[in-house]
Amino acid sequence: MMQNRLMQWLLLLALAWAQQLATAATLTVGVLGLEDDARYQPRRLEHNYPAQPGGRALEGAAVAVEESAPELDAVGHKLVLRSFLAANSADLPRVVAQMNAAKLQYVLLDLPDSEMKSALASTSAALGSALIFNIGSGLDALRGTACMANLLHTYPSEAMRSDALAQYLAARSWNQALVLYGPRAQDKLQLEAWLRSAKRYGIKTAKQTAFKLSTDPREREQSNVRLLTNDKSYDVVEVIDSDGEFARGVPFNTQWPRPVLGANGLVALAWHPQWGLNGGPQLSRRFMRSAHRPMTGQDWAAWAAVKAVVAVLSEKPKSSVTEQLKLLRSGQVAVDGFKGPRLTFRAWDGQLRQPVFLAHADGVAAVAPFDGVMHPTEVLDTLGVDEKESPCTARP
Question: Rounded to two decimals, what is the model's pTM?
Fold first, then answer.
């Protein structure tokens, strides 16, 4: 008798579970990228420059979708991941139209900085009802003058990364920096972010010098590290090099024994595969098993974007995408980013608050923000543009 009742109970439980799976809402996460993205060319990936992608960020999103399936099953949802690749920048409108036809709820933008603004213009018009995540661009303008109400950023801004480095120097009283910067437009934007951070934390620029990698013998002095660093009046060398090639040759090649930071040496990162706390080793191992390469900051940002979706769906399973955006951007829903504190999005610009790792090739040397750095409400807001400084006016 007891055995029959147990069998009946198990059968009812199985039927209920099957019914729940059958009625689960299937939601789609689309990842938009470029086939000809220079960041992912094989020769480029071979260089493995710090703070730059190691592979397609789709792989980070895939890990998050897989590991979150049981949590979403419990609230009657299922996430499906789709990749959308445009052949080149001119092909973006066509692919965005495909995404619009697919009625995507969530979009992850894995695009180079040069394509972000134009891509956002088209996605905003075609995918205005979707929740959009920037998972790889640090451009401060995307959080400022070019911000959007439905755009969230899981990748740290240039201002956040430069603030982390400046806090590190201030904490050690290394107050004189020799700044070497490159010729690219992105270098100039990073230089602006660094100068803002240096002023904010009392780091003085002992000298500011442009470098240039060139095969022209008349320009060789502009790429000679020893000549560029022959002045003694500095504590550290800050290298601003969005390409990464010049910066690789700076550590241990300076005229005087000085630490190097910025694009090489000590680098501000969203993630490091040797992060050993808060579940970091487990996440890095899951990613390595899935993608067969170490996890980078861009991979982590893609993973964190999906985890943000999972967090809000778990908190409010029946909410609309518009309601989810308001919940996330107001800070009412937090994300466990495996970095220590619970992470929330800033209401004023959609940026995910997060600690930033100060790391070298073999591990994490320190984590910003640092002890002693003060803020009236949230110490994580000492990294990046604070509410009173932000020019962003777009709100959901």
Answer: 0.92
